[in-house]
Amino acid sequence: MQKLTNRSISIDRSPMTFSERIYIPAILKGLSITLGHIFKKKATVSYPEEKRPFSPVFRGLQVLNRDEEGRERCTACGLCALACPAEAITMEAAERKPGEESLYREEKYAAKYEINMLRCIFCGFCEEACPKDAVYLTETIMPANYNRESFIYKKEDMLIPHPKKQEGTN
């Protein structure tokens, strides 16, 4: 028990009992806790063989969708970049050339579309802001890398494969 009197502290040190001095009860108590944990279900998962179930609201890597005819859906409106709270999306719009307009629905397209995955917080605001359903978050986990440049995904990396070109390869 501590008593505070004029800058001096007196500590009551009552003598330890014999069982406290030999530490046997403390050792037995620690061993009983350890033995109790040995027989419990393990919390670890052997990752490549076993996979934990993801939450139903899990958001992973972003992809850029194509329409049924294989055209890019992104019209470079910039709403995804404006909605991103982390400012991870960089986009530059460009006009289509006079001959290309008949092949595509929109006259504008994203000449440059990049997502810095080191900044991305996987909030899903880009997916919600897109009026054309071009940006979409998958259930794919972001892979690990050793250099910063490999975390900046360009438009070519994010576009899903062209469906008509895949049919021709089969």
* Estimated share of beta-strand residues: 15-25%
CATH class of one domain: Alpha Beta
Structural class: alpha+beta
Sheet with the most strands, sense and barrel status: 3 strands, antiparallel
CATH architecture of one domain: 2-Layer Sandwich
Mean pLDDT: 85
What is the terminal-to-terminal distance? 83 Å
- Total beta strand runs: 7
Rg over alpha carbons: 30 Å
Helix fraction bin: 10-25%
Coarse shape: elongated
Low-pLDDT ranges: none
Q: In the CATH scheme, what's the topology name of one domain?
A: Alpha-Beta Plaits
Q: What is the succession of H and E elements?
A: EEHHEHEEHEEHH
Number of helix segments?
A: 6
The strand order across the widest sheet is 4-5-7
Protein described:
The protein has a domain of 108 residues: Alpha-Beta Plaits (2-Layer Sandwich), CATH 3.30.70. Helix content is 24%, strand content 19%. The chain has a three-stranded antiparallel beta sheet. A two-stranded antiparallel ribbon has the order 1-2. A two-stranded antiparallel ribbon has the order 3-6. It has 170 residues and is α+β, with helices and mostly antiparallel strands.
